C-alpha cells in the first residue's frame, strides 16, 4: 500500500510530500529526488490527505556515505555565507545574511537573510551563481524565523520552542495576554525575537472557553445571603473573586451562583382626563409657537441676505488691493 509522507529538508519550511511503499517511520533520514535536485531530509509526519509532488520519489534511507556528504556540505555553508556577505556589502545592499543550505548533489544553494524593507537582490543572485557555479535561491525571513535558525535559551530556562518542535508560527495577539490576566507592559511576555511568546497560545483555548461560561468582571452575583461583585477571574483554579458589600473578598465557584437580575422601575399611568381638558388650550399655544418660530426664521433669512450682500461688496476691494500690491512688486 502506498503512503504519503511529509519530508522536511530545512528548518524554515523547505519540505515536500513524497509517496512511498516501504515501511518508513517518522524520524528517518531519507534521500529524495525531484526534478531539480537530490537532497536529504527527515520524515516528520504522514500526510495521507496530501497529493505527492510530480516527478518526485524517495531513493533510499540515508546511509553513512550520505551523512558524511551532508557534513562536508555543511562545511561549505560558512564559505558560501562569507562570499554572500562580501558581495552584498560590495553592492551596497541593506541586508543581513543569516543562514544558507546546500543540496546533497551541490546543484542548489539557498540563502536566508533579514532586511527592514524589500531588497532587489537580482544582481546579487547573478554574481553568486557565477562564483559558486550552482543555482541560487534567496529567502527573506522575519524576526521569529531568524531566532529559529539561530536557536537559544528562553526565559523559562529551556531551549526555544521554535528551535525544538514548532513547525509553523501562529499569530499571537494582545487578547491572549489579557485572557491570562497578564500585564501587557511586562518584558517577560516577550521572547528573544522581540515578539510575544509563542507559548501564550498553548492554553488560550482553555481560558476562552472558561470565560464564556461565567459572568464577566463587574457583574453582581448572589446565592442566599451571599451577594457580591466579580472583581477577578482565575481560569486555572476555576474560581472567581467577589467583593461583598462590607468590602471583604471571597473566592467562590461561579457555577453555584446566579447573576442578580436588574429590577425595572414601574411608572404610574397617565391621567387621560387631564390631557383632554386642556386640549384646546394646547392647540392655541402650538399655533402661536409655530408662528413665532416662522417669524424668527424669516428674520434669520433676511440677516443672511444682508450679510451676503456685504461680503459681495467687500470682495472686489480686496482683489483690487492684491492687484495693486502685485504691480508694485513687479
What would your notes on this structure say?
This protein has 4 domains: 3-62; 68-141, 2-Layer Sandwich (GMP Synthetase, Chain A, domain 3); 148-201, no CATH class; 214-259, Roll (SH3 type barrels), CATH 2.30.30. The chain is of the alpha+beta class and 330 residues long. The strands form 3 sheets. It has a 5-stranded antiparallel beta sheet, with no helix packed on it. A 5-stranded antiparallel beta sheet has the order 12-11-10-9-13, with no helix packed on it. It starts with a strand and ends with a helix. The protein has 8 helices and 13 strands. α1 (64-90) crosses α2 (122-132). Mean pLDDT is 77; it is low at 263-298, 317-321 and 326-330. The protein is extended, with a radius of gyration of 38 Å. The longest helix is centred in the C-terminal third of the chain and has 51 residues, at 279-329.
Write the layout of secondary structure elements.
Layout: E1 3-8, E2 15-20, E3 29-33, E4 38-46, E5 57-61, H1 64-90, E6 96-102, E7 108-114, H2 122-132, E8 135-140, H3 143-150, H4 161-164, H5 174-179, H6 204-213, E9 220-223, E10 226-234, E11 239-243, E12 249-252, E13 258-259, H7 272-277, H8 279-329
Parallel strand pairs: 7-8
Antiparallel strand pairs: 1-2, 1-4, 3-4, 3-5, 6-7, 9-10, 9-13, 10-11, 11-12
Helix pairs in contact: 1-2
